[in-house]
Amino acid sequence: xxxxxxxxxxxxxxxxxxxxxxxxxxxxxxxxxxxxxxxxxxxxxxxxxxxxxxxxxxxxxxxxxxxxxxxxxxxxxxxxxxxxxxxxxxxxxxxxxxxxxxxxxxxxxxxxxxxxxxxxxxxxxxxxxxxxxxxxxxxxxxxxxxxxxxxxxxxxxxxxxxxxxxxxxxxxxxxxxxxxxxxxxxxxxxxxxxxxxxxxxxx
Length: 203
Hints:
Low-confidence stretches: none
Structural class: alpha/beta
CATH superfamily: Isochorismatase-like
Shape: globular
Helix content: 10-25%
CATH architecture: 3-Layer(aba) Sandwich
Order of helices and strands: EHEEEEHEHEHE
CATH topology: Rossmann fold
Number of domains: 1
Family: Belongs to the isochorismatase family.
Strand content: 15-25%
Radius of gyration: 16 Å
Distance between the termini: 14 Å
Mean pLDDT: 96
GO biological process, one term: pyridine nucleotide biosynthetic process
EC number: 3.5.1.19
Keywords: Hydrolase, Metal-binding, Pyridine nucleotide biosynthesis
Number of helices: 4
Protein name: Nicotinamidase
Strand order of the largest sheet: 5-2-1-6-7-8
């Protein structure tokens, strides 16, 4: 059984949001066109409390982009984003939400960030995703969304480690690129770990 996984297509990650992925909106028509081809469409949401430890605003004297230690883990400080209940945390209105059967929330613990759709960054707590996929008998994941070099990257790595046959749809993701080649490096690493990199027209 196959599923389409749509990672964090939320207003704050799109142009005009607080943590925009350049051209992130360009992937939405591709994702919308893919959804009818899948029986299972699952979407994730970053869903942070306002006091989240990854927000630079919660660390006086520190700036966005600085790296700190948060509960024993290396943590990049981000602008406030996807605060639960805020407009920035909602899915883009351009995203077809009518075919999404399940929404997975992540990043709700203020003490640890959660890039992957499966685990927090310390791999201490699982989201609902792995259990949901097992219940539905899903073995193959087709991953899309934002951002290619952060949440999509960590999600694909965990999917492979958990034993899913994992496809990354390269024209349905975009990267933040804090460094200019971050997305390219992420693609290469995902491929080396066993992910199959395909384009939407191949499905």
